[in-house]
Design a protein that fits this description.
With 504 residues, the protein is an alpha/beta fold. The protein folds into two domains: 2-163 and 460-496, no CATH class; 177-226 and 259-458, Glycogen Phosphorylase B (Rossmann fold), CATH 3.40.50. It has helices at residues 14-24, 35-39, 53-56, 73-78, 80-89, 103-123, 139-150, 178-191, 201-212, 229-256, 260-290, 323-333, 357-362, 376-381, 392-398, 424-434, 444-457, 475-496; strands spanning 2-6, 28-33, 47-52, 128-131, 153-161, 164-168, 299-304, 338-343, 367-370, 385-388, 404-406, 418-420. Strands 3-2-1-4-5-6 form a six-stranded mixed β-sheet, sandwiched between helices. Strands 9-8-7-10-11-12 form a six-stranded parallel β-sheet, with helices on both faces. The longest helix is centred in the middle third of the chain and has 31 residues, at 260-290. The chain is globular and about 85 Å long. Mean pLDDT is 90; it is low at 498-504. This is Capsule polysaccharide biosynthesis domain protein. It comes from Leptospira broomii serovar Hurstbridge str. 5399. InterPro entries: Capsule_polysaccharide_synth (IPR007833).
Length: 504
């Protein structure tokens, strides 16, 4: 078996690869990992090559391009959708919008990755591409698209919560057999009236937590202990003192050893720093000036913005990675007496929002900007419905039987009460349905059926080691669950005896 492995080659995940090798014998492997991956030695893979992700992210300095097949127009044209997504993913490479990469640099890097990996995938027959996560870090996304074009199977994990992990082949359709399984379960319920839907302890825990919590749920990776006022003041003073010291040293050095390069570098760096602060200050001022106080008699759809740049919008939101498109479409189709309550993500770095972003969206009819400090749970409890690309607010809404207007791709798109929107016509039809007199919310049975199918599909393990902090399963059970699921998918692929663009 020949594999391409992205991000799965480290001490935590190595037992999975070893298990895969015992079952299928890995003959050749292209491994994209980190510095830890480079240090891991193995004697079970026949032949392999390790790429350091950080070293190749900007290109391949040690490659002889004279022996790498060139790009041609048919390939470039067939990858246009990938190219558009990748350019947006490159926002992750910048600390803020002021230092974002120019178009020509993005194109150069994209073409280099495309050319290199197209050559690799054309020179040797590969059986499948394995990835730690939904492809979203440029290189993995390009490889994923090339594999789809060439009929090479793809498998990747997606960690949703502690002890809830998915293994899929297509992030736009995680459960291609969902409708079949749903019909079969309803048929069983109809035929056997005594049949009751039984859920695992983990899903029952989720059901209880979502329904009984009186506070906003905050994932562990967003929990930050707020420092005291004195500590905040001390940190601010220390940062100012440090900045002034650096500035003084640099100016002193320029006066002692003046040259055009050091002067240009100094001016450029502080010009960018000034621009970043200007962007952040403008955002803070705009949020404060545009803040709307929710009213008890308002009818509204709740639209919490996504943290960006992140996987949840790039690529999971598709073209709605620009969240203004979502707001404009909603505003165009909702009734005149309905508002859009828009709330910024609590962890959003404001320097990653373009200058004037909040003023622009505030101009959209019906949009009201809500304070980031306002309770998300209260907004969810009192709304007509929620709109999101792929955010967890949609997951939370399902348990409260709130309609979800979904603009992106995520596993809960199959859930009752979720209405998928791709086009303006979709949005119009959804609004007609949502505000019709005979609109009915999802039932308890509908929810339990969805959760049962979900329950049978998840892996009770943690592909992301950070999620083990709140895990209820042992490390051994964790790895066993991940390994058996991956081996089962690969075995099914090999038994079918075909390489194909869509396999699950």
């Amino acid at each position: 078996m020949n594999l391409i492995i992205y991000g799965l080659y480290n001490s935590h995940h190595l037992p999975m690869i070893e298990d895969l090798n015992r079952a299928f014998k890995i003959e050749y492997c292209e491994i994209i990992g980190n510095s830890e991956s480079n240090s891991i030695k193995n004697d079970f893979i026949g032949e392999y090559r390790v790429h350091d992700w950080h070293s190749i992210s900007l290109g391949y300095s040690d490659v002889d391009w004279n022996v790498i097949a060139p790009l041609d127009q048919p390939l470039i044209e067939s990858m246009r959708d990938c190219e558009v997504e990748v350019y947006r993913m490159m926002d992750r490479k910048s600390l803020n919008v002021a230092t974002s990469w120019p178009y020509n640099l993005r194109k150069k890097i994209y073409y280099e990755h495309l050319r290199y990996w197209n050559h690799i995938l054309s020179e040797r027959k590969f059986d499948c591409f394995l990835s730690l996560n939904i492809p979203h870090e440029i290189i993995d996304f390009i490889i994923y698209w090339l594999c789809k074009k060439k009929g090479i199977a793809t498998f990747f994990f997606y960690q949703f919560q502690s002890d809830i992990t998915f293994l899929m082949s297509d992030w736009t359709d995680p459960f291609p057999n969902y409708e079949r399984d749903r019909e079969a379960l309803y048929a069983k319920l109809k035929k056997q009236r005594s049949y009751s839907i039984e859920l695992s302890e983990r899903i029952l825990l989720e059901l209880t937590a979502q329904r009984n919590s009186n506070e906003d749920y905050v994932p562990f990776y967003m929990r930050k202990e707020k420092p005291s006022l004195g500590l905040r003041w001390f940190s601010e003073i220390r940062e100012i003192a440090s900045s002034l010291t650096r500035l003084t040293v640099e100016i002193f050095r320029i006066f002692l050893f003046p040259n055009i390069d050091s002067i240009y570098s100094f001016v450029t760096r502080y010009r960018i720093a000034y621009k970043v602060e200007r962007y952040k200050n403008d955002a803070v001022r705009s949020l404060r000036e545009l803040e709307y106080i929710p009213r008890s008699d308002d009818r509204y759809i709740y639209v919490p913005l996504h943290l960006q740049p992140e996987l949840s919008t790039s690529p999971m939101a598709g073209r709605f990675v620009d969240q203004r498109l979502m707001l404009e479409m909603l505003a165009f189709h909702i009734p005149d007496d309905v508002l859009l309550y828009v709330k910024e993500h609590p962890n959003q770095d404001l320097s990653q929002r373009e200058f004037g972003f909040y003023r622009d969206i505030a101009k959209i009819k019906s949009v009201r900007i809500i304070s980031r400090e306002f309770s998300s749970k209260n907004l969810l409890s009192n709304c007509i419905g929620v709109a999101t690309a792929s955010g967890t607010v949609g997951w939370e809404a399902i348990f409260r039987y709130k309609p979800v207007l979904l603009f992106g791709h995520t596993f809960f798109k199959y859930a009752p009460g979720v209405m998928k929107i791709n086009s303006s016509d979709d949005c119009r039809r959804v609004m007609e349905r949502l505000f019709s007199a005979d609109f009915e919310a999802a039932s308890e049975t509908d929810l339990l059926v969805f959760l049962k199918i979900l329950d049978d599909s998840i892996i009770r393990g943690n592909i992301d080691i950070e999620y083990r902090k709140e895990s209820k399963v042992s490390y051994e059970s964790d790895i066993e669950a991940l390994s058996s699921s991956l081996s089962g998918k690969v075995r099914k692929l090999l038994e079918e005896g075909s390489s194909r663009s869509e396999s699950y």
